[in-house]
Write a structure and sequence with these properties.
The complex is a heterodimer of chains A (72) and B (349). Chain A has 72 residues and is α/β, with parallel strands linked by helices. In chain A, 38% of the residues lie in helices and 15% in strands. Classes of the chains: A alpha/beta (72), B alpha/beta (349).
Amino acid sequence: MERLGLPAVQVCAIVPIALTVGANRIVPAVAIPHPTGNPNLPKHEELSLRKELLLKALTALGSEIETQTVFK
Amino acid sequence: MEKIRVVHYINQFFAQIGGEDKAGVPPSVKDGPVGVGTLIENLSGGRYLIVRTVICGDNYAAENTDRFQAEVLELVRQADPQLLLAGPAFAQGRHGMACAAICQAVQRELGIPAVTAMHPLNPGVDLARKEIYILKAGENALDMRQVVPKMIALADKLLAGKPIGLPQEDGYLPRGVRLNVRVAKRGSRRAVDTLLRKLKDKPYTTELPIPKFDRVPPAPPVADLRTATLALATDGGVVPRGNPDHLEAHNASKWLRYPIEGVADLEGGVYESAHGGYDPVYVNEDPDRVLPLDAARILEAEKYFGKLHEYFYTTTGNVTAVASAARYGQEIGKSLLSQGVQGVILTST
């Protein structure tokens, strides 16, 4: 998608894989079976966590980058 | 002359047990050759005796990798072979993974040569190319008669302890092994010769191929998030309950999109995961844990960005060939651009 000029952020549990395959905008996620959630948290805290991850994803989409970048 | 005792490994498809409907069958054995095995015996000029054919369903092998390896290894061991041949798997991803894994296990544990063959893009290649010899095969069984003799020729060399040639000489996929060889011309001379050939547009062979990791120049950022339309996408296999379009659990053959206009939250029981590569308990309980629609709706309402695109995009990133994944990315990207989407949030399991 980035090749087409469409910025795409990959929110993923295993950052080294994203780096290997060539993703440009990367946000580290929670875990493989629940990248944007955490079943150990109460529902409202889990939702806040999800919002925070998405805010990082928005920052990644809005950032000018030169090379592969991990947004922590 | 005594014949060479060979065990042959194939999937349910090549064993003529069945297709995807039989992909879950556990390992089983047949005495003697089955299908391709007969061809192997014939093309070896009767020198190979296939004492046993081990058969396993593709999904069984992919879903229970540890158990699959242990069980098949035992079935191979019982037959006391001198050689294991697996496949050819061609471009069949799960079969390729199984062939690669079992060759690796047999070579390590039983100390006998193990040879397989598959297409260079088969995910099995990356799994085991450094340890085992994988002959380069075409995409499908049309290549059978070309590749089987190469498997036999390489296996013969391994059995006889003869030196193996370079990948292009013996037809196998490069293993990343470096060998010291003496050549007539020194390095600087060869480098200049290669450069001159390159400048004259003549054919040349590099001595050090650079690994081709796909690198893409970053796209420009979303210019104004507050007015931008963004899309949600995932390789975590989120689909409506019951998986109406039959998204594969492994080696996805397609991507899909589903409307989310007016949907505020992905509820468990309404959506679920079709992905076969992770424990789906958490996502089936709350699909927002893989495709974060509820939080995206909140941020949309709070004007952190313009609006959410009316569909979400999904596929299964599990043993899916890199070439297919790249194609799905291209297709989804083109579709989104044509609909005015300016940025994509992709979640990966």
